[in-house]
Design goal:
5-stranded parallel sheet, 8-stranded mixed sheet, alpha/beta
Length: about 400
């Protein structure tokens, strides 16, 4: 059960971005507060300093810890005895690198939205800085916070599926099925701008979630891929649909689909892992269940809350069986894990179960490398892997 001991004071959290009207910023704040492991005490919440200060006041922050920008925040917090323990970066992709770099160099731990950076060069530099500085950096790959995803990972790792043959993962959304970026939707506007979003559209925004989820559960390392990117909404500079074929080390194959234009799909993250002896299926809109189908045996529903679940799954369960848990709880599990990892690092001990198997800078780097490879493959001249059909 993810609870924070009453003998432990919450870690102090700062935030860059995520102010009024920013969807993901509120998710971070809710998640950080659930287990009393974090207290939001400082922030630079908006590129418009006045709006940022107004938002900080609405959150009850001390006026002296509401900053005009992240540089002022670093200067102000560095001189305090009660300085923040970590900063959450909730800004568009192209700003992740300079903000994270500056905080790491100033000696702060970092929690960053995905993708880690907008370019592979920056992602490599950031991971190298994390290693050399000895700081902690977590990346919010939300779906790895679900208890049943940890149960699936455990079942694969302990051989309950046998050797993995195929992994299929998809992340379809419908919210950008029309050109909403031209009609005042700020979230869509920066996501369709290569200068702010990076090289990948749907593949960078949600495909990176799918890629991380597949690798997290299967334990497989991607060896190569081939990709087809499409832009269905006229005028967009980035893809809004991606199909990717994956080849993993050891011979397993995979399929990944991400789409921002899939009508009828609210948040349809789905993972299927097929082995020689069994398979697993997980659907994010029914996140409290795993479907476990065995060779020549029965298909069973593995439910969150069962007594025989793995330690990693149990550590992330918050309510009794039959009381559904979802996205906010999964996000909170990440924040609880980040807090435990930071505390364990400071105390020179191994983290408890909640602080293990959490997404870090290296996972962020792999995600950016994946997006780069997909875009490079799809841009290859004539895409020779398409074979014409004669009849």
């Amino acid at each position: 059960m993810t609870t924070n001991s009453s003998s432990q004071m919450p870690l102090r959290l700062g935030m860059v971005g995520g102010g009024n009207g920013a969807y993901i910023g509120n998710i971070h704040r809710i998640a950080a507060r659930q287990d009393r492991a974090w207290a939001l005490v400082a922030g630079a919440f908006d590129v418009d300093a006045a709006r940022g200060h107004a938002f900080a006041a609405s959150e009850g922050l001390d006026r002296t810890r509401s900053y005009d920008d992240f540089k002022a925040m670093i200067a102000g917090e560095s001189s305090r005895e009660d300085r923040i323990d970590a900063v959450a970066i909730c800004t568009p992709n192209f700003t992740h690198f300079p903000i994270a770099k500056a905080f790491l160099e100033a000696g702060f731990d970092v929690i960053c939205e995905k993708p880690l950076t907008a370019t592979l060069e920056d992602a490599v530099a950031l991971e190298n800085l994390v290693r050399s500085s000895g700081r902690f950096m977590g990346v919010t790959y939300t779906y790895s916070g679900y208890p049943m995803i940890h149960e699936a990972k455990h079942m694969v790792a302990t051989g309950q599926l046998g050797k993995i043959r195929t992994v299929q993962v998809e992340y379809p959304l419908e919210w950008m099925a029309t050109a909403i970026e031209t009609r005042g939707n700020a979230q869509a506007a920066w996501r369709t701008d290569p200068k702010k979003n990076g090289r990948g559209g749907s593949i960078g925004d949600i495909g990176t979630h799918a890629y991380h989820l597949a690798g997290f559960v299967s334990g497989l390392k991607l060896q190569s891929l081939t990709a087809d990117l499409a832009t269905f909404v006229e005028g967009r500079a980035l893809d809004d649909n991606a199909h990717v074929m994956l080849r993993y080390e050891g011979g397993a194959r995979g399929l990944l689909w991400s789409s921002q234009v899939a009508l009828g799909s609210s948040n349809g993250v789905r993972l299927r892992v097929f082995g020689e002896q069994a398979s697993l299926t997980w659907f994010q809109e029914q996140p409290n269940e795993l479907v476990h189908a065995r060779l020549n045996g029965r298909t069973e529903i593995v439910k969150r809350g069962a007594d025989d679940l793995s330690e990693g799954a149990k550590a992330r369960i918050r309510t009794p069986p039959g009381h559904p848990e979802g996205y906010l709880e999964a996000f909170a599990n990440l924040y609880a894990g980040f807090a435990e990892a930071i505390r364990a690092k400071r105390e020179g001990r191994e983290p408890t179960a909640i602080g293990r198997d959490i997404p870090t800078a290296h996972d962020g780097l792999k995600g950016v490398a994946f997006v780069d490879a997909v875009v490079d493959c799809a841009a290859a001249a004539n895409q020779p892997w398409f074979t014409p059909i004669a009849v």
